[in-house]
Backbone:
């Protein structure tokens, strides 16, 4: 079954459907979330062709995801439980690097270089803060283990003396 692509235009002069070949047009395609239900209309794929509109949509999408990462990072950095937050910091670091590579590979064609450079600086700052926190946690853990080993050695030394 061949799929047809159509462009719906509401025009005062004519009410007709125009066929568009999307293989010729370079646009940003995505599947909408379909939260709003309309009778008889189901949208499977949406292709944005206008470059300024594509850029606005992508900036909004990236900003929303970046805000989510910032909120998650603030939550992680404020936590005091080192054992769980260390593993969460590693997964957050992986998520940030993965999202950064998605932006570079998929959205670079649609965004300006200045905006991409600003995003990369933001991601570098996020990664740096997570690495600093991860280092601090590992340093505290190392110091704790060192203190425990010293206490254990002192206990063994006392037991040797008492014999």
Residues:
């Amino acid at each position: 079954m061949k799929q047809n692509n159509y462009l719906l235009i509401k025009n005062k002069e004519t009410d007709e459907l125009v066929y568009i070949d999307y293989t010729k047009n370079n646009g940003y395609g995505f599947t909408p979330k379909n939260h709003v239900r309309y009778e008889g209309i189901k949208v499977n794929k949406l292709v944005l062709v206008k470059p300024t509109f594509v850029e606005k949509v992508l900036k909004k999408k990236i900003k929303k995801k970046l805000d989510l990462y910032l909120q998650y990072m603030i939550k992680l950095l404020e936590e005091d439980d080192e054992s769980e937050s260390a593993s969460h910091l590693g997964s957050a670091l992986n998520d940030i690097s993965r999202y950064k590579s998605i932006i570079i590979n998929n959205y670079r064609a649609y965004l300006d270089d200045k905006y991409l450079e600003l995003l990369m600086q933001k991601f570098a700052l996020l990664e740096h803060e997570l690495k600093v926190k991860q280092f601090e946690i590992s340093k505290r853990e190392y110091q704790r283990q060192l203190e425990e080993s010293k206490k254990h050695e002192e206990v063994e030394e006392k037991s040797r003396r008492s014999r």
Summary: Residues 30 and 46 are 5 Å apart (CA to CA).
